[in-house]
Amino acid sequence: DLESIGVQAEGIFDCERSDAANLDLDGQGGRTFLRVLLHLIMHDYAPLVSGALHLLFRHFSQRQEVLQAFRQVQLLVSDSDVESYKQIKSDLDILRQSVEKSELWVYKAKATDELGATDAGGDAVSLEYNAALSQEQRNEYRKVKDILIRMNKFCVTASGPGSVVKPRKHEQRLLRNVGVHTVVLDLLQNPYDEKDDELMKELMCLAHEFLQNFCLGNQQNQVLLHNHLDLFLNPGVSFLIIPKYNKLAKIYVYLI
């Protein structure tokens, strides 16, 4: 009865109807559906049992899933909101692709024998580093750097040098909803030459700065980063990544 189902479906969004909260699509208050699933899980056929259990779990978790989905809804009410979303979405797609194929563009030091490693000075290492990078690699470093700079600007605002940095709550939420922080966290876990790769050190600095700005004055974003706190408390990953920048202190203030 498609007409009856259509009327009831429309009633879900009709707040004026007194019976809007008492929709019954099977005439049994949903019990028929549950009876069928419970019957199916008793069969001696693993794929059928697995599928029925999956539907059973979804049936009882769908309310929570809907609530979670609604929490991630963000209205773009102005032209600037729309433009910000388009820029963030475009940058996120590019950043995700770069992180996923990082092994193709991140610098890898050439293996040298023990004598050569002993005699090589800082200038020689720097020359080798610059000579080893192709134009494609440099373009990739630059592309990721530009994206991280833009992401940082979306998070906070400052009127001038030395002025108070203020969070942009609307943009922080938008960044959270599209999952930018997860891609940046993946970037931080990428292996690289911590001794010689100066361009990657700069990217790591910007990535940490983004996470600091991402959770500045934003409790929801702080909770998300707190779930990954182990990444920042591991000396091998955090404190030794960018020793000369010392950018990590702020993030603990925001998280605590």
From TrEMBL:
A Pfam family it matches: RYDR_ITPR
PANTHER family: INOSITOL 1,4,5-TRISPHOSPHATE RECEPTOR, RYANODINE RECEPTOR AND IP3 RECEPTOR
Native species: Drosophila yakuba
GO BP term, pick one: release of sequestered calcium ion into cytosol
InterPro entries: RIH_dom (IPR000699), Ryanodine_IP3_receptor (IPR015925), RyR/IP3R_RIH_dom_sf (IPR035910)
Name of this protein: RIH domain-containing protein
Gene Ontology molecular functions: calcium ion binding; inositol 1,4,5 trisphosphate binding; inositol 1,4,5-trisphosphate-gated calcium channel activity; phosphatidylinositol binding
Domain (RIH): residue spans on this chain: 165-234
Membrane-spanning ranges: none
Gene Ontology cellular component list: endoplasmic reticulum membrane; plasma membrane; sarcoplasmic reticulum; secretory granule membrane
